[in-house]
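Next comes a concrete protein, fold included:
___
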Amino acid sequence: MTYTSVKTLTFDNFLAQYQDCPRYELADGELIDMEPTGLHETVSGKLATKIGIALTAVELPWFIPRTCIVRPFAEAATARRPDVVVLDETVLSSEPFWEQEPVITLGRSIKLVVEVVSTNWENDYARKVEEYALLGIPEYWIVDYRGLGGVAFIGKPKQPTFTVCQLVSEEYVQQQYRLGQPIKSPLLPRLQLRLDDILPR
């Protein structure tokens, strides 16, 4: 991750200049170049496929948009681009931006958000946990397929870790899974998934 901004951007400035550039996020007015790698995209793509299959099986009115910006707070110049996001189509008519652009501002529109960890692991394990919980997103997955997170987050020895955060009383309760372990999602109980299934070959 590289911080490239020399000036502060507003949310509207960010949309006007970078809406069609999926490699950029905005955090408190600072432009962040996410620098996605091919391996990162492999993991997020495989995961989106697994989630999509599970959603189709249960016939819920949820879907995975191809591109989406999450604006966690109206008063802050912050725009997140989750690696995978599951939206509830029945709620989108309440979204103020959705008909014109793929921007989500209401937590109730989002069922699940997924971040695949890269060099900016601090954001995924700390800041985004707070932002997504405050927004009221029921489930947040942190997919640390290379074991990059700090020891305080993934323990010793550092190893690939999949963290399921479930919102309980406005805070996330976290459950971690390692290689070989079946992952349990309260949101998608019929999902068949292990971290091994989504690793790059």
